[in-house]
Write a structure and sequence with these properties.
2 helices; 141 residues; 8 strands; alpha+beta
Length: 141
């Protein structure tokens, strides 16, 4: 049985439409208030780059901090995927006390972060001890 040409074209059109529909799911469009009322307290950070490949893939745009529950430090980092393709990286926050000593915390574990192409996301954590006065944010692939 011969398939009419309009059905063959319709099938090709459907396949193309599906490819565009599902292929387009990798991009993220973001909209935000043009006149933000937020006034974050940004942290001047020091960066130690030991993996240039990773540094060319993921970038920390900004880091800001706040105090929550009266005396606990909260850190939020805005992270950007510099590539057009999906990237998965691991990150963790480490807490430091006023003497420069590590403050062990159960939230100091490696977490996986999936970033769509050119996507910007925020990651955050809160110290579990008021002894934590500083932090380190680490990334690995």
């Amino acid at each position: 049985m011969k398939i009419p040409s309009f059905l063959r074209l319709g099938g090709a059109f459907s396949a193309t439409a599906l490819a565009l529909l599902f292929g387009g799911c990798q991009n993220v469009n973001t909209y935000e208030n043009a006149e933000s009322k937020a006034t974050p307290t940004y942290v001047a950070d020091k960066r130690v780059i030991t993996d240039n490949t990773l540094a060319g893939t993921v970038r920390v745009v900004s880091i800001n901090q706040a105090t929550v529950s009266g005396n606990l430090l909260k850190i939020q980092a805005t992270v950007e995927n510099l590539k057009s393709s999906l990237r998965i990286v691991n990150y963790k926050f480490e807490w430091v006390d006023q003497d420069g000593m590590s403050v062990n915390s159960p939230n100091e574990t490696w977490k996986s972060l999936t970033l769509q192409g050119r996507e910007t996301v925020t990651i955050s954590t809160v110290a579990i001890s008021p002894k934590a006065v500083d932090f380190k944010l680490k990334f690995r692939e």
